[in-house]
Amino acid sequence: MHTTHRFVRLVRRPAGLPSPDDFTLAQAPVPKLQAGQVLIRNTHFLVFPGLRTLIGGETRDVPLPPLRPGDTLFGPAIGEVVDGPLKKGQLVLHLQGWRDYATPAADECRPLEGILPDPIAHLAQGSAAYGAFTRLAEVQGGDTVFVTGAAGAVGTLAGQIARLLGAARVIGSTGSPDKARRLKRELGYDAVVLRGAGPIGSQLSEAAPDGIDIALDTVGGEQLTAAVHAANRGARFALVGALDGQLSPERAGGSAPAVVDTYRLLTKGIRIAGYNGVDHPDVEAEWEARFGDWLRAGNIQFPYTAVHGMESAPEALPRLIAGRSFGAAIVEL
Asked: Where does the Enoyl reductase (ER) domain lie (predicted)?
């Protein structure tokens, strides 16, 4: 085992969107175990856009602690037990990513027992989409579903999940023509509206001439505005993200205002609700069981962009925010 390890620290609060200079790759001795802790050699960790909020200082109503200059970043990670009360060599899921070696408490680790055919798939962000489609905006046979931010960690899975649950037509949004092609070619999206290629509302009207029945919104902003305008009577909206605010250089990640036509909400009887996994504790196990079955049957893909090595990790969040990932962004150590 190494005697030192590397980890990524926040250097300063970003002025606008984060850049690689806002982070540093530090080195220190491998931490010594305290009572009840497990020493884990990390193999993979997730880069998630919520870090933008945690480093921006606007963390009201956020269940995770803020990150201040000097703090080590954190997030979902997979690693191998090296020492401590858990079985050596066992793979576990925990929240101390962004470092070579982690020391979470044993009860903060979740052993990975083969529920999914590939351990890396435990970093997939499909639980929110599955929960939204089964608890808030229930997919019914024949529905037209619109997924905003379709090329992101949630969106790349959401379109596939909607189809597996019975949707007849799935439409997505993205900001890249190449990603739009991949969404249609690889993930079964029927149509994709392209941010920056004209008004989203006009594109969505063309892609869904008969309107939309469900919107799974990871973005907010103009895209949520357009979705409300395109909604059919009785449409169901589930809000699972707020990337329009988190990825805005004018904001700090803790707000995402949008213009919503409340008259249309009223006259069309549209239901709109935010999805929070804490409110649906039964979803995670149900999602994992179905996700595992779908993966083994070849019915679903887990798209992700690999970031190779801890030396590349300080650039990982800025690259994600700049739209240089397809699916989840995962650092491989």
From this structure: 16-331
